[in-house]
C-alpha cells in the first residue's frame, strides 16, 4: 500500500535533522556536489500516482511544480510528493523524510533548525527558498487540518 | 584568429574578477545585460562628484557642464546609428519604454478600426504587449509573422501565410525584432522594411539585441523607428534610445506631460517643445545618459566587426563542443533551439530529462551565469513546445577557456541524468 511505502525506522525529527546536517557537511562548500546530492535524494521519492497530481495538490508559491498529497492513517500523516524539477524533488524529499508518518502534533512542534545549518538559502537561492517555505507551510497546514479533524471526531 | 587582446579588455571590467560559489565568475548572460567597463562606471561617479546638476534650464556652470555632456551622448548615438539629425534621438528608460512611446503616440494617432499591425512570432513580450494594448483600444488587428523550426521568419513561403502574404494596404505598422533574444536569429529587416514601405506601412525595429553586435545605419536601413537599450551595449541600465525619422517624430502627439516637454504653459493651453524635448518630460536619467557615451566609445574603439568576429568564433566553438558532447551520449540529450545559420552569439538549448531551472542552478554552483526560462518570449516557447531554454550568450570579454568550463559542467549534468 502506498501509505506505508516510505515507512522508515522511527527516528525522531531531531535524529533525522542531525543526519541531514551531517550528510551535507561532507560536501563542505562544494555547491555543485551538494546539488547533485540533493537531486540524488529526490530520486528516492516513491512514485506518486498520477491521479494524486491534480491542481488541488499543487503547492502554491513554487516556481517549479510541486505536488503534495496527504492522508491520515492511524492518526499519522502520510505524504506523497513529486516535482517536475530534480532539485525541487530533492527539497521536498527532505521534508517528506522528516515528517512522513508523524502525528500532526509532531509536525507542528518540529523546530526546523536543519535549514539554516546546511546553508539552504545560499545553496538554492531566494526564489527557491521561498518555494521551500511554501512546501513547509503547506505540510503544516495539512497537519493543522488533520488535528482539527481528529478533535472533532 | 582573434586579433583582440581579450586579457586587456577583461581588465576593463571589474565585475568579472570575482569568485562566485568559490569559482571564478563566468558571465554568459550578456543578452540579458552586459557588464560595464570602468570608463562607464567612472563616468557615473565623476558626474556625481563634479558636475551634478539638472540640465537644460540652469545658467550656472554645473548646469552648463551637465547639459553639454548629456547632449554629447545624443550626438554620439546619432553617429553610432548614422541618423541624419541629432533631434531624431530621444532618450527613454529603455527599449520597452521606447516601444510603448511609439505605440501610444504614433499608434494612437494613426491606427483606426480594422487597421493591421504586424509583429513576428519571435518577439519579446515588450514588442507584443504594447501593440496588443493599442490594437485593443483602436479596434486594430495584430498579425504575426510565423517562423520555421530553425527559428527563422517565413517571408514568402509558398504554403504558409508568411510576411509577404500578411502585408496589405491595411497594414499600418510593422514592428519586428532585428535579432531574437531567445534564439539569436538575425532577421532580414532590410527586406521587411522595403516590403512594408511598399504598402505604405511604417516600420519599427527592435534593436535591443542587435546594437552590440551588428553595424546599424538607420539611413541605409530606412527604418522609421529603431529602439534599443544602453545596458545591453555595455552601458548603464535605465537608458534607452528611440530613433525616429524627423518628420514622423514632429507629427506625433506628445507622450507624457510635464516639465521640459513644453514651450509655454498657461492654465488654458500648453504649447509643446520641439523634438527631441517634446518626448523627454521630466528630469531624465542624466548621469547614466552621460555615461552611455563611454560605452559607445568602448565599442567603437574595439570595432564592431572585430567584436562580431570574435563572438562568432566563441559561438561556433561552443556549438561544436556541445555537439561533440551530445554525440558521445547515447540518447543525444541536448537539443538546440534556434539553428539559423544567420545568428549572433546566443546559444539556446534544452537538456532532455533536466529542467532548465535545475541546469541554471547547477551552473551557478560552478560560478557560471546563464539565463534559464522563457526569456520573455512565451509565444515562441509555445511554438517549440517547451517552457524554457538554457541560454548562454557571449560578449567580447568571454573566452574559450570559459566555454570549456561551461561544457564540462554540462557534461557532468548529462552524465548524471543518463
Secondary-structure blueprint:
The complex is a heterodimer of chains A (153) and B (418).
Chain A: H1 13-25, H2 31-42, E1 66-73, E2 76-83, H3 86-99, H4 104-108, H5 114-117, H6 120-152
Antiparallel strand pairs in A: 1-2
Helix pairs in contact in A: 1-3, 2-3, 3-6
Chain B: H1 6-11, E1 19-20, E2 23-24, E3 26-27, H2 38-51, H3 61-81, E4 89-92, H4 95-110, E5 116-120, H5 129-138, E6 141-145, H6 163-166, E7 171-177, H7 189-198, E8 202-206, H8 218-221, E9 225-229, E10 240-244, H9 246-251, E11 262-265, E12 270-272, H10 286-302, H11 304-327, E13 334-337, E14 346-351, H12 356-365, E15 368-369, E16 371-373, H13 378-384, E17 389-393, H14 400-417
Parallel strand pairs in B: 3-15, 5-6, 5-7, 7-8, 8-9
Antiparallel strand pairs in B: 1-2, 4-10, 9-10, 11-12, 13-14, 14-17, 16-17
Helix pairs in contact in B: 2-10, 3-10, 4-5, 11-14
Architecture overview:
The complex is a heterodimer of chains A (153) and B (418). Chain A is mostly helical and 153 residues long. Chain A has a single domain, classed as Sufe protein. Chain: A, CATH 3.90.1010.10. Chain A contains six helices and two strands; from the N terminus they run ααββαααα. Chain B has a seven-stranded mixed β-sheet, sandwiched between helices. The model of chain B has no long low-confidence stretch (mean pLDDT 96). The interface between A and B is medium-sized, with 18 and 15 residues.
